[in-house]
Fold this protein.
Amino acid sequence: MPTTTTAPTDTKTTASPAAAKAAKPRKPLPAPNSDFYDVYETLSAEELKALKDVRAFMEAQVAPIITKYWADDAFPFELLPAVKALNIGGLGMKGYGCRGGSLALFGFVSMEMARVDPSFSTFFGVHNGLAMGSIYLDGSEEQKQKWLPPMARMEKIGCFGLTEPLVGSGAGRGLLTTAKREGDTWVLNGEKRWIGNAPWCDVSVIWARDVADNQVKGFIVENKSTPGFSVEKIEHKIALKVVQNGHITLKDCRVPEANRLQGGNSFRDTARVLKVTRYMVAWMATGCAMGAYEAALAYAQTRLQFGKPIGSFQLVQDLLARMLGNITASQCLVTRMAQLHAEGKLTDAHAALSKAFTTVKCRETVAWARELLGGNGIVLDYKVARYFADAEALYSYEGTLQMQNLIVGKAVTGLSAFV
Ligand SMILES: Cc1cc2nc3c(=O)[nH]c(=O)nc-3n(C[C@H](O)[C@H](O)[C@H](O)COP(=O)(O)OP(=O)(O)OC[C@H]3O[C@@H](n4cnc5c(N)ncnc54)[C@H](O)[C@@H]3O)c2cc1C
C-alpha cells in the first residue's frame, strides 16, 4: 500500500562550478515505503479498503497525539468511538456479530496499527485476539452468543489473565491461581500480573488451576461487578506505555459455572488461543519495525551533515538496506503464516517460529533506526525512541524468545526440552 507520507525535496544548492547543475530542481525523493515486495497486494480489494481505513485512522487520529499519551502513561479513551466506527471488532471471527474476514486481514490490521503505534495494536490484540479469541475458541455456543456481540461492537472491552507474579514462562506447568467448585459456583483465588487493558476494561478471561483435577480452566469474570476482584495499574513501564497493564487480585471471587469456558479444560485449550495471538504478535513486531524504518528513512533524507543528507552516505544506506531486509523477510514470513492458517495447517511451532524471528528482527531494526538518528534517536519527539522501547515488550510477551524456540526445538527434534 503506497504510503501517504511525503518526503521533502532536497533543495540544497552547491557552490560553483556546479552552480548550473544545482540550479536545476532536484527530483523529489521517494516517500518512505516499507512494503518493498508489495505484500499488501496479496489482499483482496475489499480487504485493502478496510486496511486503508485503518491506516487513515491511525495516521490522522492516533499519530498526532500518541507520543504525548505514551509519555504520560495514559490511554486515549477519546479515540474509542472512532475505533468502534472502523467496524473491526471480531476481526477474523465468524458469526456472533463479529466482523469476520480472514486471519490475514487481522494480521495486516495489527501490523498497520503497530506501524503507527505498537501500544494501540496491543490494546486491540488483547481485546480481539486474547479475550474474544478465548471465548470464540473455548466458549460454548451459549457463551459465544452472550459475550461476543457486545465485545464485537466494542461496548465491552476484554483482557486475558494468564501470567502471575510468580509464574510467567512456566504457566503451562503450574498456575498458582486456584479455582474451587462449590455447587454451581467457582471460587477463584490468586493474582495475575501484566494483564493488558485490565485497569479499565469490562471482562476478564482468567485462567486458573482447578484444585480437583489440577487442570487449567478459563473463567469469564466481570471486572466491575464481581466482589473480590480488584486491579492495580502497573506503573513505571518503559515500553508500550499507552497500554494499561494491571495486577489483578482475586479474593474469594465467585463466578457461576455458566462463566467457565466450556471448551477450556486444560492448558492445551489455552495454547490454542496463544497460537493465534503469537501469530498476531509476529505481525505487530513487523509493523513496529516498519514504523521505525519509515521514520528513520525520512530523517535520513532530510538531516544534513557535511553539507549533505545523511541518507546519501554509504554507511547510512547500509543501515537502511539491512532494516528493509529484516522487514521484508518478516512480512514474507507472516504472509506465508497466514496462508498456512487459511489452509488449516498452522501449527504451534509455525506461530512460535514467526513470533521468535520477527521480534528478534524487530529489535535489531529499531536499534538501527535509533542509531541512524544519532542523539535525536533517544528523544520521543522523533518517534523512533518509542518504537525502540516498545520492541522490548513485544520481544518478551506472549512467551519469550526462549519459550518460542523450545516449542520449535521440540517440533524439529521430536524431543521436549521443557523441564
Ligand atoms: C507489556 C506486557 C504485556 C503483557 N500482557 C499480558 C497479558 O495481557 N496477559 C497475560 O497473561 N500476560 C501478559 N504479559 C506477560 C508475559 O506474557 C510474560 O511477561 C512472559 O510470558 C514472560 O514471563 P515472565 O515475565 O514472568 O518471565 P519469566 O518466565 O520469569 O522469564 C525470565 C527469563 O527466564 C527465561 N526462562 C524461563 N524459563 C526458561 C527455560 N525453561 N529455559 C530457558 N529460559 C527460560 C525467559 O525466557 C526469560 O528470559 C505481558 C507482559 C508484558 C511485559
About this structure: The chain has eleven helices and nine strands. The mean pLDDT is 94.
